[in-house]
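Incident review: delayed structure delivery

Summary: a single-chain prediction request sat in the queue longer than the usual turnaround. Root cause was a stuck worker, restarted by the on-call engineer. No data loss occurred. The affected request and its eventual output are reproduced below so the record is complete for anyone auditing the incident later.

Affected input:
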Amino acid sequence: SSRAMTSGASAESVATAPRLLNGAQVEEAIAAEYPEQLRREGVGGTVRLRLLVGTDGIPAEVRLLETSGYPVLDAAASRVAVLLRFSPSTDSGGKPLRVWASFPISFRVR
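Output delivered after worker restart:
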C-alpha cells in the first residue's frame, strides 16, 4: 500500500496524515494510463509526486518530486494524480488541514 508523508506543517500541528481512500480506483487508473509500448517492452518505474492535499482530501497542486526516468511515465502519473482522494490531514483538535504530501505512483509489468 502507498503511504503519504506530510511536510510543510509543523509536526505538532498535524495529528493525522492524509490517507489514500480510493486505492482500487487508483490501481485501475495506473493500469489504464500505463503506456502500452513501455508495458510491452517490460519497462516500469516509480514516479514520486508532491501533492498539496486540501481540506477536502483532493490534491490542489501536483508537482513532480522524483522522475521515473521516462517522461511518458511521469506524464501518466500526473494524469493518475487527479483521481487521488485522501482523508484530510487534521490537527490535534480534528480540524482539517492543507498539507504537502509525498506520494509514489508505480508502474509495474504484471
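Verification: The chain has three helices and eight strands.
Action items: add queue-age alerting; document worker restart procedure.
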